[in-house]
Amino acid sequence: MSKQRKNWQSKLGFILAASGSAIGLGNIVFFSSNAYQYGGGAFYLPYFFALFFLGLPIMIVEFGMGTMTHQSFPLALRKLVGRRGEFVGWWAIFGSTLITMYYVVILGWALGMLVGTFGSLFEPGITAPFTPFTEPTAEPSAIVYFFDMIASWNPVIYIAIIWFAMGWILRHGTASIERAVRWFVPLMWLFMIGLAVRGLTLEGGLDGIMYLFTPDFAGIADVNVWRGAFSQMFFSLSLGMGIMTAYASYLPKEADQVNNSMLVSFLNCGFEFIAGTAIFALLFVFALNPAGSTLSLSFFVIPQGINELSTSPWIVRFFGFTFFLLMVMAGLTSAVSLAEAFVSALIDKLGITRMRALTLVTVAGAIGSFCFSLPQIIDVGLSGNGTLGLTLLDVADHWVFNYSLLFVGLSEVILIGWVLGAGTLREAINQHARLKLGVWFEVLIRYFIPGLLIFVIVLSLKSEFSSDAKAGVPYGSAYDIPGYEWIPYAIPLIWLVGSIGFAWYISGLKTQGGAR
Predict the structure, then answer these.
(1) Closest among 24, 3, 65 to 329, alpha carbons compared
(2) What is the per-residue pLDDT across 136-159, written as a single tens digit (0 to 9) for each?
(3) Angle at 60 (CA atoms; ends 259, 88), nearest 5 degrees
(4) In the chain, what are the domains?
(5) Which of 313, 311, 317, 301 is nearest to 115 (CA)?
(6) Which one, of 62, 74, 79, lies nearest residue 449 by Cα?
(7) In angstroms, rounded to a whole number, what is the distance separating the alpha carbons of residues 63 and 218?
(8) Looking at residues 78-93, what average pLDDT do you find?
(9) Which region holds residue 169: left if phi is over 0, alpha if psi is between -120 and 50, else beta?
(10) Considering only CA atoms, which of 79, 426, 89, 6 is closest in space to residue 258?
(11) What is the 8-class DSSP label of residue 428?
């Protein structure tokens, strides 16, 4: 058991931290990108379906495990269902750590764009060392600025700053996390509401809102809409990563986890609606097409729209600064929670001090992030991603994001539903819940959610080798970069072998326990 355990100073601190984890880059850009790609209003029925039948029940499970055991995700699963549960927990930690590594790189780029708002981001005459961008631009160009930035070593500095900030926030555990989120989370809401109000006051902004909230029932019949909604909900609520169990483990046993789950879920979804309002207003005001890409939406399309908000360069710079500051803050609260899941698990397992666990996580994470930001140009014509780092990030994101979370979620609900027994968890949660969970909760955990996740996984794997793509080859092979053909094969292999090897090794070690 953990010694000298520190808890949240207040329920508000926990809710802010958990909602800060859920609210991240996915809410600001991934939600809007998915909604645009899948037909605006057509996205909402599958989205709400995913919220109530997938996201909310699994969040109740993960919160419940935390307060039942007062352990991090791997150790909570071991206490409840044995070593095979701990194996799944460490699999989740390995996958979420890989996500953290490249997530921090994206935050570093956002920090670089933030710096650029008072530099050359909104100025003409910039170039980048790629064939399409060697001539000075006649107008400001966010895409040229971005590719010039990632082809340099500047992002390494930004990434180091992000990791240092994460370490500083995590240094005292719940106390320092709570102090940070009390500032960051309210500021995120204020900044996003400000962008939404500005978008609505521009001519054409209301057209974007109409598109966002008007359902297209023909689009709802498209299975890809449902797949996009499920992926959005899983990532957006930070499920299958060990985060919510780690955060809930710092709560007293009498905490009402049904109420907490609803608060965090609805805060997350509320922020997504405001973010969607702001971004769709900008898209329609300036007739911009994000092409369904999260990267292009956040780093190319929105800065292009901000550049046209006003003829005053300082107003443009202010709104650009505000948007990228919002991205950095939202991403930082999520990255902190991802790192805390690993830190708390190491302390529980190895019995080491917080500072030692934090040092291990930040040093290893920073090294991984630097790999995902390597500026070596491997595709000068930009037929793919241009640099080695961005190519590695693209392929890793495809495999780890799409499959690690789904596999962990599937394993988690099977273990809780069938080995522990969903009824056991339901009874423990109901002891302190105002809104009692009914038998429907057991049906969801034992039957419905596993069947749903199996369906999504099988459908996704089938699409990997469909005739619509490049049949028989893994994602990324279409880039066809001489000398780097190994990347699409190496990345999923490293993820699979690394996850299995790491989880098997560390789950076999004797649990020591330590102070968190």
Answers:
(1) 24
(2) 999 999 999 999 999 999 999 999
(3) 155
(4) 12-465 (1.10.4160)
(5) 317
(6) 62
(7) 37
(8) 95
(9) alpha
(10) 426
(11) H
